[in-house]
Specification:
Length: 387
Amino acid sequence: MFIDIDCHQIKKYNQNAFGDYFVSKRYPDEGKLIAVLSDGLGSGIKANILSCMTATMLLKFVEKEEIPIRHAAEIVMNALPVCKVRKISYSTFSVIDVNDEGAAKIVEEGNPEFLWIRNNEVMTPPFETIPSKTFKNRCLKSYKINLMLGDRLIFCSDGVTQCGLGNGKLKLGLRREGLIELVLNKLAEEPDISSSDLSQYIIRQTINIETNRLPKDDISACVLYFREPRTSLIFTGPPFNQKKDSEYAQMFKDFGGKKAICGGTTANLISRELNLPITMDKEISIGKLPSCSYMDGVDLVTEGILTLTEALERLEDGKWDIDNAAGKLIEFLLDSDCINFMVGAKLNQAHYNPALPVEIEIRKNIIKKMAAVLQDKYFKRVNIQYM
C-alpha cells in the first residue's frame, strides 16, 4: 500500500510568511511515514517561527522510536507556553506516524479534528484524552487506527474550518460539517483524485468562501490517500558493458508500469534490441530543449542530459509550467509513486564538450540529486540501479 501525501497552504492576506508549518518525512527502510502540521499563534513571522519550532521538534522526537508518539506529543504540549494576552497556546499541532500496512498513530492538540474517510463515509474513531500536567484546559487526543486501501485522512488548520466567518450564509464559518460536505462531494465526482489535487481543491474553495477572496487567517490542508502504488521506470544512459544491452532492454520491456527513456543513445539501444522504430516529433520545441520522440510501448522519450538537468532545476524551485520535454518529464515523475531509474555507467564524451553550459553535470550526479528532491520534497519512493 502506498501513502500518497501532500499539503497545500496559503498565507493570511497581507502577510509575508506562513503562520502554519507542515513537515513530512518517509523512512523507506522502516516502511513508514511521519507528518506534522502545526498552526502558530497569530500570523506572520512570529507565527511562522512558533509553528516551525513545534513541527520540527515533534518530527525529531517521533522519528526516534525510543520516544513513543504519545509521549513526544505530551512533552511538546507541556512545554509550549501560553500567550499572556490571549491566554491560549503559542501553537497547535497534529502529528501522524503511519506504516505501509496502514497502522497509524495520530495525536492532536488544538487543531481541528482530522477526517477519516472510507467508502465515501466519515469514520468516527475512538480516542483517548490526555490532559496537560502543566496547563489547564489543554489536552491531547490520541488515536490508534488501522487504514485500508482507498482510505483518506485530511488534516487542516483552523483557517479552513473558520473561513468565511461572519459573512453571509457562513456566520460561524465553514466548520467541520462544511468541510465534510465539500470533500465528500468532490470525492463523489472524482473517486481517484490525488492528494495533491484534493488539498489544492480544499484551499481554492476556502479562498472562494472568504470575503473578497482575502484569507483572514493562514490556511493549510494536508491529505493522505492510501492506494496501490503507481510505478514507473526511467532508462537513461548507455550501460557500461555493451554485451548486456539485450539483457537490459528486456528488463525495460518486461517492466509492468509506465516507462520513459531519457537520452538518444539509450533510445537507439532500445530501438535496436527490441526492433522498435523511433518517430521524431515534428513540432518545434519550446526553449532550447530538443522535442520528444515516440516509440511503441514507451510513454515518454526525451533527449538526455539537457532535459534531465532542466527537469531537476524545475523540481527544485517548484515551477514547471512549461510545455517542453522537461515539463513532460516532470509530469511523468509526479504522476508516479515508486520511481525506478536504470542508469547506464558508461561515460558519454558529449558531456565534456566545453561548448555545453558549465552547470551541466554527469548523469549519475543529476539522478542522485533528482532522487533526493523527489523523495524529500515530493514524497516519492525512488530506487536507482546502475548498469
